[in-house]
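Morning F.,

Quick status update on the modeling queue. The single chain you submitted on Monday has been processed. Sequence for confirmation:
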Amino acid sequence: RTVKIGDQVWMAENLKVTKYRNGEAIPHIVDASAWANQSAGAWCAYDNNDTYVATYGRLYNWYAVADPRGLAPAGWHIPSDAEWKQLEMFLGMSQSEADKLGERGSDQGGQLKESGTAHWYSPNAGATNTSGFTGLPGGHRYDYGHFGLIGDACGFWSSTEYDTYYAWYRGLYYDVANVYRWYDGTNKHCGFSVRCVLDY
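Structure tokens below.
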């Protein structure tokens, strides 16, 4: 599913691929220690339970995002930090707010989250999904290999590296209506959801 938001066309669901664009398999890592020590691309299902995949997609470390073989399908790419800002500013965030760290904006997270509490924990603050993005709380896999926060939060990778250890990401949470932007606290080993944006 896709949705046009401003001048961008986004996937309206989380990525589920298990192969790179060139057809080569992305390693599927179940073991927590192996996940923590992986320095190449990898994917997993939340809690290593495939029943979550249909709703929440798969979780990927940042090395999969950055792999030159292409995590996104042909014609698509992983959004940069700047492209995330473009989305947020279309939804009403100012440039100065978009450039900040941590929780930013006002109701932009609410515009991005699926409304209601079928998947999100209550109160799912401010959730209207007026953008059509339909953000879901797929949780994440910590850099040390354990899982957490399904129903509570979701993280989305950007393609923009911060440094050797970190990359920029976005977070949506059940108890706030704004959007979290950060790099520290979760390194490139973390497993996050991925959304793609159409090439243009």
